[in-house]
Amino acid sequence: MNPNKYIRKYFFDTLTTDGLSVFDSRKGLDSQNFYVLLSTQSKIKEKGNKCSEYYDCTINLEIIQVSPKEGNAVSRVALDDAEEKIMDAYDSLAIENFNETEKNYTSTDLVTYGVNEIIKRIIVTINFKLYEQ
Length: 133
Hints:
single chain; alpha+beta
């Protein structure tokens, strides 16, 4: 059983319930300037036993805020608040059909200055080991 879809479903459902706009891989055509992307995933299938498979999984979530370059550049408080919601989801991690054995959380804060806009991001990397129930 491939855990990737269950991982994305967990974070999408949990974070949208918490009021965040969440997109899988890329934002749609709407003009939102604050959202979360479920950007990339990786997994390593490890040797399990005859009853279940083991996976070392990683997902990157990008919290993105776009603001005009001119005028008030907007604070990063909304980014920090969104990261707290991701941290809560991490603390309560429950992936359907799988049990977790270990987990790790890291984040990186990035700012990109474009010609007309400022893009502020927090990239969260969550790594965990799962085994099938």
